[in-house]
Design goal:
This protein is of the alpha/beta class. The chain has a domain at 76-195. It is 25% helix and 14% strand.
């Protein structure tokens, strides 16, 4: 089989249909500048760090003495007892009720001044211990208000706070008081009725 060119080669096939004149679009490289996003992230981070450290925890700190299981003898003259009853009334007495003093009603805004006054008595000499007795049906809100008043009575003396003046020496006294919380039972309230003034 001589002659002829390309007999065994693949025949040329013409493309069917029409050829389009459209050119293929080149893909453009996409890049995102992260610099502004990083700046915003750090601004938000620093904002939250500062605001969370400036927030004060909304809890009341209460510390138990290390030897809270040990019985401690306390002089009756150094005791100041406040009772919060179910109806919201506040009563107080010093020492032992009925023996040392009658039980008298007291208003919330008078507690701080009364604690300061009793602590400055010569017989107490800045060793007043306040016992806050709370009935189980008493308002939680009122309990917090009384505790706030007792805490205010323990604020160290500054220029803004009215100073406690020792009547004997005429000098200001550092107010270092203590208070404790105890339950108030129905039986106790019944016994106290005869001593109320």
């Amino acid at each position: 089989m001589a002659g002829g060119g390309g007999g065994l080669g693949v025949p040329d096939r013409s493309k069917r249909g029409h050829q389009s004149n459209r050119k293929k679009k080149k893909r453009i490289g996409f890049s995102l500048d992260m610099t502004p996003l990083v700046d915003i992230t750090f601004l938000l981070l620093t904002f939250f760090m500062f605001t969370t450290t400036m927030l004060k925890p909304q809890i009341m700190e209460m510390k138990l003495p290390p030897e809270w299981l040990v019985e401690v003898e306390v002089r009756a003259s150094e005791l100041f007892t406040i009772q919060l009853e179910p109806d919201g009334s506040l009563w107080y007495y010093t020492g032992v009720a009925g023996t040392d003093s009658p039980i008298q009603e007291i208003k919330l805004n008078e507690i701080k001044a009364k604690a300061v006054e009793l602590n400055l008595r010569p017989i107490v000499k800045n060793r007043l211990i306040t016992v806050f007795k709370i009935h189980e049906d008493a308002s939680y809100d009122q309990v917090i208000q009384v505790l706030d008043e007792l805490n205010l009575a323990e604020v160290p003396i500054t220029e803004e706070v009215i100073k406690d003046i020792d009547p004997a020496t005429g000098e200001s006294v550092q107010r270092s008081r203590k208070f404790t919380i105890a339950p108030l039972f129905e039986e106790e309230m019944e016994k106290m009725k005869e001593f109320k003034k």
